Amino acid sequence: RGQTGTAASWPTVRKAAASAGYADEPTQAVRSYVALLRNLSAGQSAVVTKEAMNLKKKALAKKQYGAALSGFDVYASLQGRSAMPLVTKATGNASRVYRVGVLEIASGFMQAGDYKALAEQAKKLTGVEQKEDIIALIGNSGDASLVSLVKPYIGNANDGLNIAGMNAAALLGGEGVAVELVNQMKKAGASQKVVDVAKEALMTYKGNVDDIVGVAAAQGTEAGRVAALEILARRGAASKADLVLSLTGDNNDKVAAQAYRTLPCVATAEQLPKLYQLLNTTAQTNVPMVQNAVIAALKGQSANAASQSVRYNMGTSSGNADRY
After folding, report:
1. What is residue 64's three-state secondary structure?
2. Neighbouring residues of 24: CB distance < 8 A, sequence distance ≥ 6
3. How far apart are the C-alpha atoms of 290 and 282, rounded to whole Å?
4. Closest CA to 131 of 143, 141, 120, 140
5. Residue 23, CB half-sphere, CA atoms under 13 Å: how many?
6. What is the sign, positive or negative, of the torsion defined by CA atoms of 285, 287, 292, 293?
7. pLDDT in tens, 248-269
8. Interval 105-152: pLDDT, tens
9. Closest CA relative to residue 60, chosen from 52, 72, 68
10. 152 vs 59: CA distance, rounded Å
11. Phi first, then psi: what are they for 111, rounded to 5°?
């Protein structure tokens, strides 16, 4: 009596959790066990550390990964970086739920050296997903100095590792990353998934990538060129408006079609003469996109100036006034 929630409760809650097979079930025995661990962790760290390790081991043996992670979480909250050997061991576990859970907990106390140690561990692991989890952890660290740990995976023959490397490097940034992403996007034989991942990363990449993306739009694989034009559209790359305009006449139909879709996103007043010319000569299906490009290019001009511009070109449109 009066001892509930104290160390005297250990035998009862420990036995109840074991009887429940460390599963999350109606009696909530495991939750009571973990709650007791947390309640007593401040005053009885040595005992709680031992109990938390006991919970982790036994739950892991039963493949009850939620309970195992709870045990590890309590253990790590007391041991901090001293828990790194357990983290390293966990990276080889067959359960992705457990691996990722441990890595997420560990990210709260890991330092640069720990990330480097795990990068070395990744080289020893045979499972692709096991490697991917470590690469993702490094990418989510927010430490740009660690980008060299993930860049080697970019271009890996395994799409999963290649994609993990691209995503992590894009999050961390750094010299040469954007170039690597563009190279993957335009590489001959690249899967559509790789192209799409590189594209998405470049769409939101910090820093100006217009020039290198522009090169990919001008030449390379069809998928890479289309993706590059989509990036220029998303980023509103006005510096590449002339290039996009020229690509509306590309021999590749898909590239030309995407160039038309990109045009309204990048057009400026400098392109107006060519836009009016294109509006007069393009196929009817492209007219709405060119019209939108003209509207975008006229922004910033006074209403009177814009009106005069349109009226003048309408008058010289050679029978295509309805396009204005």
Report:
1. coil
2. 30, 31, 64, 66, 67
3. 9
4. 120
5. 7
6. positive
7. 999 999 999 999 999 999 999 9
8. 999 999 999 999 999 999 999 999 999 999 999 999 999 999 999 999
9. 68
10. 36
11. -115, 175
Q: Name the stretches of the chain with pLDDT < 50.
A: 1-3, 312
Helix (H, G, I), strand (E, B) or coil at 93: coil
**Which two structure tokens, joined as six digits, stand for 32?**
């009571």
What one-character DSSP code corresponds to residue 205?
-
d(CA 96, CA 82): 23
* Coil, helix or strand at residue 240: helix
Read off the pTM.
Answer: 0.86
Q: Determine which helix (DSSP H) or strand (DSSP E) holds 203, and give its type and residue range.
A: helix 192-203
Residue 5, phi-psi category: left (phi > 0), alpha (psi -120 to 50), beta (remainder): left
Structure tokens at 184: 């993957």
| Helix or strand run (H / E) with residue 207 | none
Q: Which of 230, 317, 322, 309 minimizes the C-alpha distance to 271?
A: 309
Angle, CA 15 vertex, CA 11 and CA 19 arms, to 5°: 175
pLDDT at 174: 86
How many Å apart are CA 113 and CA 138, to the nearest integer?
11
Q: What CA–CA distance (Å, rounded) separates 257 from 240?
A: 16
